[in-house]
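Review form for a predicted model. The reviewer records the input and the model, then writes brief findings.
Reviewer: anonymous (R2)
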Amino acid sequence: MAEKILPRKTRYLLFKLWAMFAMVRWINVLVIAAALYLSAMYLLKPNTPRLEVLKDPKLHLEVIALSLFIMSGYIINAFYDLRKDLINKPKRTYIQRLISKQTSLSAYIVFNGLAAILSFFVGWKVLLINLIFSFALWLYSHKMRKQAFMGELGATLLTVAPFASLAIYYNRITAYIFLYVSFLFMLALTREIIKKLIRFKGDLVVGERSLPIVIGEKKSRMLALLFMLGSLGQLGSLYFIQWLLRLPLWFVGLGASGIIISIILILTTKKGSNYNVINWIYKLLIVGSVAGIALIY
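Model under review:
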C-alpha cells in the first residue's frame, strides 16, 4: 500500500529520517526531558505554582538545549561504536547505517551549535556547564567508554548531569534533591553494568576493556548485586525520611519489588540468560523513578 501512495525516493527519505530518530534515541531523550520538567516543578521550585514554572521561557530553552546536547552525544557514540554495535545490536545498527558518517558528523555539529546558542540565552553559567557536559559526552565516547569501570561510571554521571545543569539555572541544590538523584544514579550505574554483561561478546571482539572483560563476568555480576542492595537501602531511606520526601508506600513497594526480583534473577542466572530481563526491569525502574518525582509533594 505504501509503495502505491509514496514514491520510492520519498519512502527512502522517510526511512533515513526514522534512522536518524533511532540514532539519537528519541525515546530516551523524551524521558530525560520529562524528568527535567518534573524536577523543575516538584524538586527545584516546589513552592511555585506548576503553571508559573512552565511559563518560564528559559526553562524550555534549557530543556531543549540539554536534549540537543544529549542527542549529539548519542550520535557521536554511535559513530565510534559502529563496529561493536554490528555484533551487539545488528538490527538497530543496520537501520542506522543508512546515515552516512558525514551526515552524522554534520548533525553532531549542528545540534551542538544550536544547543550552545540556546544555553547562551539561558545564562552564562548554564552555557559553561552545558559546554562542559558536551565535551564530557565526546570524551566518554572517544576515551572513557574503553576503560574498565570508568566507562560505566562516566555513562552514569552523564545521565544525571542534565539535572545538575538545571539545578545551577535555579541556583538550588538541597538534601532531598541530592537523595533522589543519588538513587537514580545508583539505578543507572547498575543498569550500565548489566548492559556491559549483555554486550560482552561485542566488546571482546573489538578489544574494548569493559568491566566484565577486565575483572570477569562473575565479579561484575557480584558488583551489580552490591549496587542493587545499595539502591534497595537508598529506597528505604527515601521512604523513612518522611520530613524530606513524602513518597507513598505503594510506590516504594513497586520499586523494592523490581530490585528484589532483579537480585533473585542475577543470583540464579545461568550463562547470562537473565541479563536482558534485568535490563528491562531496571529500565522500567528508572522511568518509574522519574515519574515518581511528581509524587514527592
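Findings: The chain has 16 helices and no strands.
Further findings: The chain has two domains: 9-173, 174-297.
Recommendation: see findings above.
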